[in-house]
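User: Structure tokens for this complex, please. No commentary.
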Amino acid sequence: MKDKDIELTIAIPKGYLHDEGYQYLSKFGINFDSKSSRELVFYDRKSKVKALLVRPSDVNVYVEHGSADLGIVGLDLLKEQSPDVVKIKNLGFGYCKLVLAVKKDSPYKDSNDLPANCKIATKFTRLANDYIQKKGLIAEVVKLYGSVELAPIVGLGDAIIDLVATGSTLKANNLIPIETILESTAFLIANPVSFKFKKSRMSPFLM
Amino acid sequence: MKKNLRNPKGSRDWLPDEVAKQEYVRKSLVSAFEKWGYKPIQTPILINWDTLTISSSKLSDTAFKLIGQQGEILALRADLTTPIARVTAERLKDDELPFRFYYVGKVFRYQSRKTTNEKELYQIGIELIGSKEGFSDLECLKVLHDSLEKLGLNKYLIVINHALFWQELFKCFGETAQKLYKALNQKDLVLFYELLEESEFSKNEKTFWRELIYIRGGKEVINKFKSISNKVKKLKVKKLISYFENIFKLFDKNVEIDLSLTSDIDYYTGIYFEVITPYIGKSIGSGGRYDDLINKFGFDLPAIGFSFCLEDLLLALEKQGKSFPKFKAPKLLSVNKTNIKKTFEEIKKIQRKSSAAIKL
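Assistant:
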């Protein structure tokens, strides 16, 4: 079998990066039959590409295990999960920031104002702990899986560490960002073995 | 507290049919090794902590540490090359060189690989000890090639690089080259390009680096390697190129140069390589030349070797759809209650050719 005939599998995240991910791939002539059904696997049979529609936090897992050759994932999740994958390039889209946010009416102006042994709610426990370490804070991380903005409102934590794109969700929940921890955009990643084995299929993406 | 009576996380059992598959892999490889005159060697699982730390800091980072009864620090072996280097220096100083050894044994690592939790794995491989760089490298690659063929793995690649190439780059490009190496080792091409752009390299040098990491392929890439090396006057790669050319005189497919390949093990001094297969998303084996390691144990000997992870080989073969020999059920004989001896004699007769047991 010739190298260019080998099927390429790409993990594409649902949600935030989804549409721009599709747009990015269409630049390479990759277009998938349907986008909006309940199916999880899509094909572009002409280009011999298969797309897996997965949760953003699962992209790294599919690529690391080799179930997908390529994946589109935010730098936030790359740093949080630090998978063993090839980071090919920064795609530039999907900008967002990981911020430390507090209630609007709270006295905390930056991270040093946070009281010792405070609680910080977040989905990003590794990045949160790294930040606490780096800043020398004494704080406890509370792991949540979604709607992190709720935590300070109901008293589950003094602050949150979460992603913001426009800031409107924070605003709507009476929260303000006080420090930026990480600026994130979408990255193209590859499984290390696929990167070597399917190199002629990968090469258009390296340019 | 609730008692945990199951296996610790990261360890596994092997039921008879699984052992049969494992045996297939083991026997295939061993027969390839023995055809080349390699002999089996065994070393203990329990080793002194110092043995490990002197060999490789990366290995000792992931090794199991134990405290002995007198407070001495012990470890479970995390590879087999280190113990074999030790025993060679300890007991074989007066023997005729070279030594051709093969081994099959378990290694223990806290985090053997990121994608799985396995903490104990079988390693199987060879060491060719006492020969300098040259024909012994070719023999080692040939044994590697033969063992993969014998195994029946139908798609694989041996990707190679050379430690001296990086040493030369470090010499020419200093600290930035070290950083670039580290970025490649972390598989972070984004960081690699950022570092390259920020560097004070000339335009030609930047082009050299950019193209360098895409020198991947068979003998057809050698010319490309030559032409990009000409961009950097001070770089000396003549010897390296003829080294690679010699390899391609012997191998035309399944072996590729990959100048972006870095090594996770810190004792390689010459060629180092990885074996990959599209069936699983990680390398199934690796190896290289380690000319300084045995000297750390007091015997200055060059050496080269490789090892496979047996579990990964098995997984790749299963994904490929290979069928494995199974255990044949024994012929069962009802016991003749009046003459038990006769039954056992009949069983004995059958056992000359196959297996038999009593029906219980």
